[in-house]
Amino acid sequence: MMNDLIADALTRVRNAAMRKLEVTTLLHSNTVVGVLNVLQKKEYIENFKVIDGKNNKKSIQVVLKYDDDEKSVISEIKRISSPGRRVYKNASELKSFKNGFGTIVVSTNKGVLANDEAYASKLGGEVLCTVW
Prior knowledge:
Elements: H1 5-18, E1 23-27, H2 30-41, E2 45-52, E3 58-64, E4 77-79, E5 88-89, E6 103-108, E7 111-114, H3 115-120, E8 125-131
């Protein structure tokens, strides 16, 4: 049994990007789907879809995005909060990341949001990961 599905999903995306794969498969959880929604809105991935598997097990297929030089759009993707060490930030601390070139993915009481959306809504929460 895996404890941290978010870290596993981020590692699979990172490894697939390093190997220049077009598609990778992730384990399903609602939080992972929320993180992927943010990554798709911010154009770090092309798209994703949830696939029903055997024995009611779901998986997620993610289509990665590359630039014209066949280099991954994701330079770095890093897990911040973990099951053993939760990291929380209030709205004022979420204003900017990497001078606006990066994104902080935050789990708020309104769902999983990017840092600019959370800052505009004046919502803080658990910092799941950073991407740039």
